Amino acid sequence: MKESGEYKFQSGLTWRSFLSIIFSVLILLPASMYLSLAAGVGISMLVTTIFFTELFALFGSNLTKQETYITFIIAWIASLIPSGGSFYNAMAMGNFLDFVYRAYFINSIYAQVFIDPTTQRPLNHVIPYWWAPPYSSGAYSSRSFLYPEWFFPILLGIVLLLLYMMQEFALTLISSYLYVEIEKLPFPYAQIDAQTCIILSERPPDQIKIFTFCMLGGIIYGTILYLLPTLSGGAFQIIPIPWIDLTTGFYGIENIFPGALLGIGTDIALFANGFLLPLHIVACILIGSITVWVFGNWFTRTFFQQIFPEWTREWGKGMSLGLVYQRSLVRVWLGPQISFTLAISALLIIREGKSIVNSFKKLLKSSASIREIGYWPLPRILAVYFASSLLSILIFYIFVPGFPLWVAVIYSLGWGFISGMISSRGTAETGNPISIPYVWQGIILLSGYKGVEPWFISPVAGGIASPWWTASVKACYLTETKISDFFKSAFLGYVLIMVSSFIFSSFFWSIAPIPSSVYPMSLISWPVTAITQSMWITGEISVFKPQVMLASFIGMLIFLSAGEILQSCTSIPFSAISIVVGTTMLPTSTIPLFIGSAIGWLFLQRIYGEEWWMRYRAIISGGLSVGESLIIAVSVAFMLIFKGTWILPW
Fold first, then answer.
1. Parent domain of 291
2. What residues contact 18, with CB distance under 8 A and at least 6 apart?
3. In total, how many domains does the chain have?
4. What three-state secondary structure class fits 134?
5. DSSP state of 516
6. Is residue 242 reached through a cis peptide bond, with omega within 30 degrees of 0 on the bond before it?
7. What's the pTM?
8. Number of C-beta neighbours around residue 447 at 10 A
9. Cis bond leading into 133, ω under 30°?
10. What does the alpha-carbon distance between residue 273 and residue 474 come to, in Å, rounded to a whole number?
11. Cα distance between the two ends of the chain
12. From the centroid of its chain, how far is CA 58?
């Protein structure tokens, strides 16, 4: 990677890229929202990117690579809007479908039959007014946000979202400076995004030829995998979606290792992404994944039944891969995954503490050229981080005054920073963040607090958005786009998306109740979320065992340290962060990733040479992914037509 002074950063936020923001807000967002409710799928951001690059090319004025990347990133943000039904996800608070879910939850049968153990009252009687209007409110029968009792929950949600984004913004600037500017880590998936945008804008003949050929391959595969099953109503499905389940059945791994899960993902992007990762990195990811989900599940099911009795009781032969994953995650791995993250954090501090301190010193004395790119001085970054964290802690304490304040401080300031830095490091080295669910829920249980309030609000803690934003900063370098333009366009996009989400969520809600048969996927996903939420609140899920977490921390720290020592003594490649990333990924992702990496590095590189492989691997991967994404978009369009026809009364 070049030094920052060698890049010619240019603006990508122009009137032409602004048009893509408007298009994403008015067209892509409502389509993505509807599809997530109806079918649980979204629309690829590449559709918008290709549409605008081709549109301006027709008028003889190609978009620059900077404009193309800004178009890409805004479409990406719009396509990621969730479908609601999140169990306290700060990212979802900008999506008004989350408030529709709140209306559903408080009026659901689950909130009526689950009893708060502290007050012995049904949950819908004790849900705080600042989370949703009282269950007897007329706001629910009107199915409208234009009701006085919705004002405070929406205002509180927006305030917390803004504080969350401020914290993630500060974490992104720090991790970007450390991993992009100083360490120059590869960010493999950012290379795909950048190469795709460069090819679409500059159209170099040699690269566009390979890109087009690979895109054709992606189209053919995508047609078999997605389009034909859509057109045939599922009757013509040669390849299973989303994976080939090797957990159960005659050849199922459960016959050898009871409790284990195994499968191979079928999306071509999983294989193509392996082209960008060195084989030893992918091998370590695979080792971490197989160790946890195959051997770990088996050991905890057979040899440690007394420690994990719920997992032993709930597992049964014939359970699908998805069901085994769900139960083993909740009953076994939530606590250990937190410990694994703390172990890699400790190792990195020990191994690279001096380097990290020096990087902070450089950021403290950042030059004018760095500030011109878009970095802030360290004191200003830290001021934003501490201000957003402390304000969120204050808000939390106002509404939950009995909760241990020191726990909230450690969660927001401590865990938020650790999670952001480590997840961004995982994205930088492997392309995948270290994603650990239900951390706040575990903290509530370990705190001993009695009451429902903290189940509906928490201080902000980053690590969800900052890994992807940091990867976007890497792509800004590769496309020579001003980092400040990325943040400006992202902020503008989030604001407009929030407004658009309010309008279209209200529109969808007014057409029919959510969930309902008009929005089929919500009938499946929202009740599951409501049941899970009710079980957490009432204490029916309690899986954070301190002794297990301590043993997991010590065991992982010893294993990672041994791997580091072995590498220094024998030169056998080892990646500690990849091992930990792998523990959070299912074999359905890691096996095709390894296959793709092996094909690329062991065969294609030897056939065509190292120079050719290093030049075109991101183009090959991007072409395959773009081709499949286009077919997914076509499949989604047909699904919209089918669903729209099905809803009509004639």
1. 4-647
2. none
3. 1
4. coil
5. B
6. yes
7. 0.81
8. 15
9. no
10. 17
11. 60
12. 35
